[in-house]
Amino acid sequence: MSTQVTPHPVTDAVREALAVTRRGVQELLPEDAWVAKLERSAATGRPLRIKLGLDPTAPDIHLGHTVVLNKMRQLQNLGHQVIFLIGDFTSMIGDPSGRNSTRPPLTREQIKANAETYYAQASLVLDPSKTEIRYNSEWSEPLGAAGLIQLAAKTTVARMMERDDFTKRFQAQTPISLHEFLYPLMQGYDSVALKSDLELGGTDQKFNLLMGRQLQQEFGQEPQCILTMPLLEGLDGVEKMSKSKNNYIGITEPANSMFAKVLSISDTLMWRWYELLSFESLEAIAKLKAEIEAGRNPKDAKVALAREITTRFHSAAAADAAQADFENRARGGIPDEMPELTLSGDMGLGALLKAAGLVPSSSEGLRKVEQGGVRVDGTVVSDKGLKLPPGTYVLQVGKRQFARVTLQSA
């Protein structure tokens, strides 16, 4: 089978599709081959097969994860076939990308539970009715020992050692398990099995994506193009979004929390988020940016972004309510909805704040009191030794954390 893409005329639709593809990407390789694929698709009416492989190593998704999913949705909206590949087989190996040690493999039970939650959340971005869901155990397990040996013969140890993480671990005399070499090989074989035209991934996946191209050529297929997306900076605007750094927004967070967190980012970071997270056209974003530079309040643009993101993962009504709640708090008001709990016993203020889930420890609660960051029924509290009598109180830490607590006699 030929690996050459037959050229077709470049139309306005193809140019538009290329612009959508390029938006916010780190790399598109090789771009000329992707243009040729788009041309052929437009001429023949055959959708291109767009692959995203995800190992369900954790059950929850934050906005950083949706950068690649957003790109999938954009390509899906152009009429192409999106394949959401769940790496139930490769998860048992463990992706070594960016790792300085061997990743512990997951059990089948963990993989299954994570995969179900992961796809349910990804469906908040993708159009489920136009998404093909596959599991790579479909073709990986039937390979068997003989098939795996034949597949392994299609690349070399030297090729594997071109990976930065493998090279660094080898030079540092950090162990590399032999099974880790199988990971990029099996991910590449996924592209062969699915006859992928384009595979997406983060910048840390480039080696694995290129392995797909190599193996497709080995199997006589037209090689896929690869598209890498940058890693999204978190709320701090410095580190990549990560739960471990507590600078993330989970896509299943309450609407009020999601809206408020988006408004907390810097004016500079806002435009980066617009590029990678918004579905607004580049022309609309450029127009908005020009208005801000001409003197319009940057908060207007941030509110629009917060509304868009909150609407996507909740609803327009939820975004309306979240905006009203935020504005109420900004005026010093108390939100209508907040966690409620009943406690009993004689409790110091620090312990009370901890029990209400507003601080991680009693000492942190007292530190917040010292800083003037604690309110009881809207009044700032400065006495660290304060003990509240039985009754119902609204406790507040900072601008966004509230709890309604009912204290009962011991």
From TrEMBL:
GO CC field: cytosol
Protein name per UniProt: Tyrosine--tRNA ligase
Q: Which HAMAP family match?
A: Tyr_tRNA_synth_type2 (MF_02007)
> What Enzyme Commission number(s) does the record list for this chain?
6.1.1.1
Query: Residue numbers of motif 'KMSKS' region?
Result: 240-244
User: Where in this protein would one find the motif 'HIGH' region, according to its record?
Assistant: 56-65
| Record keywords, A-Z | Aminoacyl-tRNA synthetase, ATP-binding, Cytoplasm, Ligase, Nucleotide-binding, Protein biosynthesis, RNA-binding
List the Gene3D superfamilies.
HUPs, RNA-binding S4 domain, Tyrosyl-Transfer RNA Synthetase
Q: How does it assemble?
A: Homodimer.
Going by the entry's taxonomy, the superkingdom of the source organism is recorded as Bacteria
Tell me the Gene Ontology biological-process terms attached to this UniProt entry: tyrosyl-tRNA aminoacylation
Name the family the entry cites: Belongs to the class-I aminoacyl-tRNA synthetase family. TyrS type 2 subfamily.
What is the protein's known function? Catalyzes the attachment of tyrosine to tRNA(Tyr) in a two-step reaction: tyrosine is first activated by ATP to form Tyr-AMP and then transferred to the acceptor end of tRNA(Tyr).
Provenance organism: Inhella crocodyli
Cite the GO molecular-function annotations of the record.
Answer: ATP binding; RNA binding; tyrosine-tRNA ligase activity
Every copy of the RNA-binding S4 domain together lies at 351-391
Q: Where in the cell is it found?
A: Cytoplasm
Q: InterPro entries, per this entry?
A: aa-tRNA-synth_I_CS, aa-tRNA-synth_Ic, Rossmann-like_a/b/a_fold, S4_RNA-bd, S4_RNA-bd_sf, Tyr-tRNA-ligase, Tyr-tRNA-ligase_bac-type, Tyr-tRNA-ligase_bac_2
Instruction: Write out the residues that bind ATP.
Output: K243
Catalytic reactions on record: tRNA(Tyr) + L-tyrosine + ATP = L-tyrosyl-tRNA(Tyr) + AMP + diphosphate + H(+)
